[in-house]
């Protein structure tokens, strides 16, 4: 499994914690930036970069971090094919994969403590899409995307 990481300045430190966690677990990742926390950057740039990498299959999944997890997820979700879930608890992390087939996860550094954030990442990585009745609903989401893409 290969994961794409991205953040803005508000999520930079959490992204680094996640990178350390992935290193410890021996999980491959690519960090799409930014490369330092000092500069204020625009989260849509990094949300799009990681989302592009997921749809182009450079990576299998993406994990994003900003202050709340919200802005960067909104940007990622504009890329067709992306289902990016903003998550602040372990149950939702599991469900976002099991039922919604989320291919990206977004976390808020100003919302979550390090411990919970890493538990969420672990739960999300280790949960599989259940398919079955959920496939029909995910397909319906894809149809909406198609209908509204010009
Ligand atoms: C940056 O200050 C902050 O707005 C950003 O990290 C994020 O929380 C936006 O959704």
UniProtKB/TrEMBL annotation:
SUPFAM superfamilies attached to this UniProt entry: Ribose/Galactose isomerase RpiB/AlsB (SSF89623)
Coiled-coil regions listed in the entry: none
Keywords: Isomerase
Listed Gene3D superfamilies: Sugar-phosphate isomerase, RpiB/LacA/LacB
Keyword flag Isomerase: yes
Keyword Isomerase in annotation: yes
Enzyme Commission numbers on file: 5.3.1.6
GO molecular function, one term: ribose-5-phosphate isomerase activity
Enzyme class: isomerase
NCBIfam families: PRK05571.1 (NF004051), rpiB (TIGR01120), rpiB_lacA_lacB (TIGR00689)
Family of the protein in this entry: Belongs to the LacAB/RpiB family.
Protein name: Ribose 5-phosphate isomerase B
Native source organism of the sequence: Romboutsia sedimentorum
Gene: rpiB
């Amino acid at each position: 499994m290969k994961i794409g990481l991205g953040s803005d300045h508000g999520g930079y430190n959490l992204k680094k914690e996640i990178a350390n966690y992935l290193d410890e677990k021996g999980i491959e990742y690519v960090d799409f930036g930014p490369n330092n926390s000092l500069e204020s950057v625009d989260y849509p740039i990094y949300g799009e970069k990681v989302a592009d990498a997921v749809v182009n299959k450079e990576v299998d999944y993406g994990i994003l971090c900003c202050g709340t997890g919200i802005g960067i997820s909104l940007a990622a979700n504009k890329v067709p094919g992306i289902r990016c879930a903003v998550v602040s608890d372990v149950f939702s992390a599991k469900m976002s994969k099991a039922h919604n087939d989320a291919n990206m996860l977004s976390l808020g550094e100003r919302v979550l403590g390090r411990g919970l954030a890493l538990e969420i990442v672990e739960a999300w990585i280790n949960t599989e899409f259940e398919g079955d009745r959920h496939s029909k609903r995910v397909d319906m989401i894809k149809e909406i995307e198609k209908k509204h893409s010009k």
